[in-house]
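FAQ: What does the model actually see?

It sees only this:
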Amino acid sequence: EPAASAAPLPALADADALVNDALATLAGRSGVMTFLATDGFVRRAVVTVDNLPRTMAPSRLWPVQTTPGRLQLLAAGHAQRIAADNARRYAPFVAFVASVEPSRAAALYRRLHPLFQQAYAELGYPKGHFNDRLVEVIDHLLAAPEPAQPPALTLVEVKGEVPSTRPWLRYEFADPALEALSSGQKIMVRVGLDNERRLKGWLAGLRRGIAAQR
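And it is asked to produce this:
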């Protein structure tokens, strides 16, 4: 593979085929097709990484597929709590991530880094370094709280400008401290404690492999 690694990269707009082949080599084509959103993967990854410490990280821009199934809840007095079984929904994705050696993921990232950097510049950071942002965001995710019990939720009506007979409802964390978390830290909490710790272990390994990249 040294020759392939030394080959010049295509322009970002033409990079999907190369990136998808590289991801398939890294993680297996079946897993990539099941768990990743491969159209515009680099741009998706960059915008999502940048959004994770913010309030919103729109799922339509994620580089991964949304988790199938419905949120599993358990009645808890007058409130509801995320059921312990809900974590099983995320287990296949977490197993997919864990199947990839972090050092190999870091090596592929270093090879493709110019594409990530170009996408970051296009996002509005022409003088910024994407790798600095990535390390910062990994550290932010590693700092996510680890509730000992699945958190309680409250059902909240989202009010729009026009009154509706069928209002849009969403679940929020009942604990204000959890509800105040960023979108990325909420995801870490929502996947369940065991999954969260496995993801943190993997992210820590990835961080070690990219921290010196520029």
